[in-house]
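quick one before i forget lol
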Amino acid sequence: MELTSQDTIVALATSSGTNGAIAVIRLSGPDALRITNEVFKGKDLAAQASHTIHFGTVRDGAEIIDEVLVSLFKAPNSYTKEDVVEISTHNSKYIIGRLINLLIKRGARAARAGEFTLRAFLNGGLDLSQAEAVADLIASNSAASHQVAMQQMRGGFSNQLRKLREDLVHFASLIELELDFAEEDVEFANREQLRSLVTNIHQVISRLIDSFEQGNVLKNGVPVVIAGKPNVGKSTLLNALLNEERAIVSDIAGTTRDTIEDEINIQGITFRFIDTAGIRETADVIEAKGVERTREKMKQARLIIYLLDPTQDTIEAVEQQLAELRGLGIPFVTLVNKSDLLTEAERMGYANLQPVFISAKSQIGIDDLKEELLRQVNLANVHTDDVMVTNIRHVEALQKTLDALDRVRYGIDNPVTSDFLAMDIRQALHHLGEITGAVTTDDLLENIFSKFCIGK
């Protein structure tokens, strides 16, 4: 990806293939106004103020392609910090294709994935963690993931890292100064103050790393496996949760041969439910593979719903099944299905298991199950305006920062020369800088922005 290009780029900014009435075509670059002016019949755009909208027609010679609205955002007061023009046209594939081709003929270039946001980063409009939050915001599908992405895009995470770096830079400069006076054996950086600072930064970064588990769940959803023996009602339960016929329901044991996934939103938290093949010994090769996949999915889940059919097993057999679950070390919810068929005395027999009683077929107890799911993941009371880490790249950089800080503390406790201390502090600064983009490589930027959609 060329990072210093002065080309003017163009792309469809709205989602393609939708049935909406309007499409927005975006240009950014030094010639955005000139190129648009050459095809736009209306006011002279070059003479208009920034942040204004103008009605007119787009023409290819004498032919009118469409009536449009043109929005102007002049540098540096735009998303990319360059001249930006957005053309609102009718959402016709033919019109969009004609207009983009016309703009390219006039000197624009088709934008690459994420190139508008890349330019915003390169021109100082966003740091790298904020740019990544833009992609998270677009992909957010729940209130919680939206709020976390918005908080990061507005600089909450960046501001905290910036303060940490500033404090470290101050001490790094003092230690570098000591190197200039090495022969005089003087200390400009107070070691106790440095120890206190490093300890404080270590605590802050540790909390950020610890936040990843919840932040990642808020961003990507809670993976929940629905497990149990064959024909206990797992597929019926999935359909009841989704309120639609998503999975095939049959009285024949082993109907579900593979995993089926779908998601719902419960009080702003996304749960990704995975219906699995029933767990049992089987001679059927295909079903056996399904059972093996079930066991693998259970190991990867953050929460397991284990569904029981009281008409199939004794309580003793159920307790044996649950013992295997406890061995996985993953939180699980015990569900007793067909509870409408149980007497009160029979219900009391399951009391030690602390189950949720449901009837998947009659949709009894589904709301109780949703409340239990929220309680288990303990996310309902998470403050999404707190700084959270949701990106594995950030976690890895923070962990490397911690390792460097540990070496700094070791150097303070076991006095080493200033050059070694300076080297370890520089390493910590380097890894913090990787998160915000103060330290970058072309490969890193290519990897990040290639995952964006075209037009953003």
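fyi The first strand starts at residue 9 and ends at 12.
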